[in-house]
Every structure is written in C-alpha cells, then in structure tokens.
Amino acid sequence: MNYNILQKEVQLFIDKNLNSDLTKLILKGSPFSNISIQKLSNQLISKLKSQKKLPTWFHAKNIYYPAKISIEQTSSEVTALYKASLISGDTLIDITGGFGVDTFYFSKKIKQVIHTEINEELSKIVNYNYNQLKVKNIQTIATDGLDFLKKSNQYFDVIYIDPSRRSDVKGKVFLLKDCLPNVPENIDFLFNKSDIILIKNSPMLDITATLNELKFVKSIHIIAVNNEVKELLFLLEKNTKHIIKVNTVNLLKNKNQEFSFNLNETHNVTYNIPINFLYEPNAAILKSGGFNELTNAYTILKLHQHSHLYTSKKLVANFPGRVFKIIAVYPYNKKKLKKILTVLKANITTRNFPKSVAQIRAETKLKDGGDTYLFFTTNCNNELIVINCSKVL
Prior knowledge:
Layout: H1 8-16, H2 22-28, H3 37-53, H4 55-59, H5 68-73, H6 77-84, E1 91-94, H7 101-106, E2 112-116, H8 120-132, E3 138-141, H9 145-151, E4 158-161, E5 164-165, E6 179-180, H10 183-190, E7 196-201, H11 207-213, E8 217-225, E9 228-237, E10 245-251, E11 256-262, E12 277-281, H12 283-288, H13 291-297, E13 301-302, E14 310-312, E15 321-331, H14 334-340, E16 347-351, H15 357-364, E17 373-378, E18 384-391
Parallel strand pairs: 1-2, 1-4, 2-3, 4-7, 8-10, 16-17
Antiparallel strand pairs: 5-6, 7-9, 8-9, 10-11, 12-14, 12-15, 13-14, 15-18, 17-18
C-alpha cells in the first residue's frame, strides 16, 4: 500500500477527476512526486467502478482501492446482502476473501468472522478499509484459506467459498473442479470443519454438472440484478436429505422478483397458441430451468416445449418477468412481414427460432427501440410465428 494516496490533497484530486478523460490525465503524469501515475489512475478507475456496485465504499472517506480486477470480480453490495440473508450462527470463515464485500455483510449477521486472502497486499487493503468502515468483528489473515483451515482446530458455523477459475482452464464453460480451491476434491474435509457450506459460483457454471460434483446440497440460489444473472449459490448442509429447493431472485430497483420450486418435481404442462397476454420469464428463471414449474404456479399456458414463452386469456398479476399485451400474431414469412409491419423501430426477441436478432433486423430493416415488441418464436403446432405486443410490465 502506498499510504501517500490517503493524503487529503490526493483524495481531493481523485474525487475531482473521477469523470475526467483518463487518457489525458495519464499523459500529463502524476502531479504527486510520491505517487506514480499508474497507482493514481488505478484509484480513479477502481473508485469509479465502485460508485454503483459498492456505494458504501464509494461514499466512505479515505477508502483505499485495490487493482481494478479485484473490484470487477467482487460481489456487488446488493448480491452480498442477499447472501447474508441465507446464513446464521456465531462463527464464519471466508476462505477466498478477495475485496471482502461478502465478508462485510456476513459480519452484520455473524458474531465472529475470519477473512482469509492469499494476496498479502489485498489483505492489507481490506483490513485498512474495514477500519475505515468501523467494522470490529472481522479478523483479516493474509494466507491461503484452505491451508488455514487444515491447520486450525476451530469448528465454524459457516464456511463461505468463492472459487476462482484456474488460469490454465480455457473456454467459457467450466466445472467446479476447474476452480481454486477445488471444492469437490476437498468436500469431505470441509464438512469436518463445518455443517454449513455456502459456495458462490459464476453464472456460467452448469447447474446439473455442479450438483453431480457436490454432496448434501440443500438449496440453489440464482441471483440476477436488473435481469442479468450475476451469481449461482449452492447452500450445503451436512447429511441433509431434503429435496433440493431452487430459489430464483431478480433484484430490481424498486422490487424483487422471486420464484422458487423443488428440483426434479414433475408437472403436467398445457400448450396453447398465443391468446391475449404473453409472458417472458426473467433471466434467473431461464437459468434455473424451471419452465414447467411456472405453469403450475401461475395460470398460464406454454407456447412450445422449447420456446419458454407463456400466454393467458386473463392478465396474471405478479409474474416474475416481462408481461405483454398481444396485438397480433403473424405466420413468419420474410416477404409478407415487411408489408405487415408499418413501424420503423421495434424491440426484437427470439425464442426457439432459427434466425438471430441481427438476421431479422437485416431482413426487416427495423431499428432497435420504440414501443413495439416483436417475439419471433415457434408455437405448439411447430409453426414459426411473430407475436406483435405492447409492454404491460
């Protein structure tokens, strides 16, 4: 840590230049002889990235920011708050501490919390910031969290793990065993240290594959923020024999959309052509695979087995997703569609359709935007259709 960054004039400079052209600032060089322009620009970038993601840190005085990758990889405050609602007890250890946002929110629910971080510099930064935030019940230790557990005699109420992808693993899709620490390889040892394990995963992880790697999974939580899936959580409880519950939540500005179901329960599904209203589940539900469960929870009918769009005669309240009033339904015909559609702009979505949005825009010459919503999909008769809608919710 370069403590000169915390001097009053440096902090004023950072605040004044948060929205300045960074390239021009870098070319000018650092106005402070004891701080390099690289260190200074990192503080600017990381603080700016924290403005919406970490408002508690952003608005606190004299916060020291780590490398921007630590800010990019950390949980947001809204997802950290949700995670904290899932646990209870007196002791918790976070064996992959990072910038410590999750640990900070766990400390509001747990009496004694340990934050371990293998990066010594980052651990120092986190400890300093906790003092600035007046947190008294978190102990920060610069060490490998798994090694610390192996040497410790303490039994914890909760172990929290946020595995990171190994640098030698290529491609976007990966398994939990491809992360560090390797949770599947150490699962039995971890259950010797706690009855409860909470694991945060990337939304890229395949849920079924992850379940096959773990044991004693009690619940799965899929967290979306503004309809973008951010995290998958697996809550494990030693020797649990419960049916696994899947909880989806879409955290919005003014409300949360929540939908839960039991994994592997079978439901009868009724299919129908579009009627009066169209329903599109939010991103968390789409990730969960709980498509048939929606028809059981709400009075809606599915358009097609693979379309994941729904319809109803009467408007269904509190649906966890977007709701539209159907104006018209057309058979998909490239030539006729140009004549039917009189608008210049439209919001286009494809579900179970052989062409991409880009291809459709090229065909129709429709620009993005406006109040018209077009869904290109397949109906229950395996016919390609276009549903013209206006947005209700």
